[in-house]
Amino acid sequence: MAEIKPTASVKATSVQPKKSGNLISWIAPVACIIVGYAFWRFVLGDPGGFNEPATSGGIWPQHKSPKDALHRIYEGGIIVPLLIGMFLMVVVFSIERFLTIRKALGSGNISDFIRKVQYHLANRNVDAAMSECDKQRGSVGNVMKAGLRRYKEMINEGGLNIDQKVIAIQKEVEEATALELPMLQKNLVFLSTITSVGTLIALLGTVLGMIRSFAALGEGGGAGAAGQLAVGISEALYNTALGIGTSALALIMYNVFTTRIDSITYGIDESGFTLTQSFGSLYK
């Protein structure tokens, strides 16, 4: 019976999961809706901005005859604070994603960074390549450094053949990538959701405004009905404008951030290819 030689085992990955809270995902939407309502109720709905302010009305006083365009937005109705809150969400999550992605991009050009690493690896100077990763300080640098640590281990590993070593390096890069990419894509779901939901909520406000308009026409004629008709139409149009503007901004920011993430992902893929190709050619 042929003797079976034991296969050397590859060490577990050195990549550690990143600990990051997602508290902003819970707090920001609620806070934005509250701020949106407060702005609509106490700024746009300031009694001093109307010729016929209501003395009561609870959460939605029926002020009439606004003095200027700013207070006229108040007539958009109770859907307006929700749309304002969604607009604030777009602003908050755009700032949060901008800061996160800017950090993930690191310092310097990604292509230049990869070329420097390739140069050091071609000269068999792994430590210098790892120093370049420390200087880069981005997601590509983090993935590259994780792969380089395993790269360095595989140089002196005697129990594996070249194919197994390359696979070990590739696996390390894949595991590091799996930890980096979710950090980049987190909270983008809010922007993509607002892109479509903002328009639907605006449509709801538009429908409510039109119902109010036709109800005014059905109840009676004269100047009073014309005034109610105008209020209902303004409610419909303000909701439409706010919803379309919010959705458009959310769509633009979502596309901007996904484009940036795609460039980082391409750099990560290129870094993994660089490591495996370098090792396979230099340490046959």
The average pLDDT score comes to: 86
What's the number of structural domains? 1
Q: Which term fits the overall shape?
A: rod-shaped
The SSE string, one letter per element, is HEEHHHHHHHH
* Backbone structural class: mainly alpha
Helix fraction, binned, reads over 70%
Explain this structure.
This protein has 284 residues and is an all-alpha fold. It has one domain (23-52, 62-282). It is 74% helix and 2% strand. The protein has 9 helices and 2 strands. The chain has helices at residues 23-44, 69-72, 79-105, 110-122, 126-136, 139-155, 162-185, 188-219, 222-282, and strands at residues 50-52, 64-66. Strands 1-2 form a two-stranded antiparallel ribbon. Helix 3 packs antiparallel against helix 8 (188-219), helix 3 runs parallel beside helix 9 (222-282) and helix 7 runs antiparallel to helix 9 (222-282). Residues 1-10 have low confidence and may be disordered.
SSE map:
Layout: H1 23-44, E1 50-52, E2 64-66, H2 69-72, H3 79-105, H4 110-122, H5 126-136, H6 139-155, H7 162-185, H8 188-219, H9 222-282
Antiparallel strand pairs: 1-2
